[in-house]
Amino acid sequence: MFIDVATIKLKAGNGGDGAVAWRREKYEPAGGPAGGDGGAGGNIIFKTDEGIHTLMDFRYKREYKAPSGENGRNKKQFGKDGEDIILKVPVGTLIKDKNTEGVIADLKSKDQKFIIAKGGRGGKGNAKFTTSTRQAPAFAQAGSKGEEREIILELKLLADVGLVGFPNVGKSTLLSVVSAAKPKVANYHFTTLKPNLGVVNLGTEMSFVIADIPGLIEGASEGLGLGDEFLKHVERTKILIHVLDISGSEGRDPIDDFFKINSELKNYDERLSTKPQIIFANKMDIPGAEENLKLLKEKLGKDYKIFSGSAATTENLQELMKYTFNELQNYEEEYETYDEEYVAVEEKEEGIRVYKEFDKYIVDGPYIEKLMRSTNFEDVDSLRYFQENLRKNKVIEKLKELGIDEGDSVFILKYEFEFFE
């Protein structure tokens, strides 16, 4: 087992701004406000997919940004919502916050969805701000910003595919060629003292984990050599690639070897003998291989898919890996099912901070930033709405608690205001 890790940045879409617009219809020269609401920003959603086995795709693309909502339009037309981005991950993916390393979600169910970054809300158009005393509001509400976060994706990888076969048949060489793994490769038995794992990448959303399972000899199931320890790793694989030295270069009979290894698998655990097996007749570049391959196909060709080639020259390895990937897609695994369509991140309160720093009175926070962007400071109604919001959210009360006096300056974002009641 090893850990597959990827760090990515996410930015959900901003909400569209509400529109300031007026009815301009025939026979109604002084029509009322008609500004529509802005659309919501797109969310970024993770979804588990049992056809994906690694986090390989996230190593090539590390930033994801969802579309923003459109601004509102005239005639009270709403802006279009930004489309959600759905990122597919393997079942068993852990999502952590980059800054705190705390776990945000554990995606361990089939087809589970999780909203990791929520899009901003659309702002209200000026048509929504009419009251009995405010008939013609010349202001609208700005959309909220989409969430931004940097996260770590973590997956504990168990091998999807196990390479089995006698020592020195070419398993380590095969692993090193088809993946980025760097196992020790030498011409003697028991080179590998622990399972080597690598990721085979055949393209976008086409990768899987492969392991060289070492130490299989006669008697391995009874503890001879290191075999019984390594047989534990075979239990968790979905498909086995049985590597044979088809040349018989060490004086061994490849067909006999095939049955001996399968006997060890069955003796250790009956279920291992029922795992799907693909045979790879290796070392076809060595004289004598052709005759043995013919015998192998006569004996086992009806029951097993047989590929022939060479790990040393890479002959037919791409075809072998593509076939293996397709077989993995057909493999049915038991997963938890997830009933709810989504698990969402908790709603974050849009806060306001009121504080004193170096004798300066300061007001900031996401809500205030949105309020400032929504305010038309040249319009009396808009200014009144701005002041009402400050009072309603106890900004005035908090400033007075901090000791502010008439005429003192208050700094709200980049602007300076004079305090008076």
TrEMBL record:
Gene Ontology CC entries for this record: cytoplasm
Limits of the Obg domain: 1-158
Coiled coil regions, renumbered to chain: 314-348
UniProt cross-references to InterPro entries, sorted A to Z: G_OBG, GTP-bd, GTP-bd_Obg/CgtA, GTP-bd_prot_GTP1/OBG_C_sf, GTP1-OBG_CS, GTP1_OBG_dom, GTP1_OBG_dom_sf, OBG_GTPase
Cofactor section: Mg(2+)
Gene3D superfamilies: GTP-binding protein OBG, C-terminal domain, GTP1/OBG domain, P-loop containing nucleotide triphosphate hydrolases
Assigned keywords, A-Z: Coiled coil, Cytoplasm, GTP-binding, Hydrolase, Magnesium, Metal-binding, Nucleotide-binding
Major localization class: cytoplasm
Pfam families per UniProt: DUF1967, GTP1_OBG, MMR_HSR1
Protein's UniProt keywords contain Coiled coil: yes
Subcellular location: Cytoplasm
Keyword Kinase among UniProt keywords: no
Residue numbers binding Mg(2+): S172, T192
Its EC number(s): 3.6.5.-
GO biological process: ribosome biogenesis
One example GO MF annotation: GTPase activity
Binding-site residues, GTP: 165-172, 190-194, 212-215, 282-285, 310-312
OBG-type G domain residues: 159-329
Domain OCT: 334-421
Protein family (similarity comment): Belongs to the TRAFAC class OBG-HflX-like GTPase superfamily. OBG GTPase family.
Biological function: An essential GTPase which binds GTP, GDP and possibly (p)ppGpp with moderate affinity, with high nucleotide exchange rates and a fairly low GTP hydrolysis rate. Plays a role in control of the cell cycle, stress response, ribosome biogenesis and in those bacteria that undergo differentiation, in morphogenesis control.
Quaternary structure annotation from Swiss-Prot or TrEMBL: Monomer.
Protein name (database record): GTPase Obg
Organism: Anaerosphaera aminiphila DSM 21120
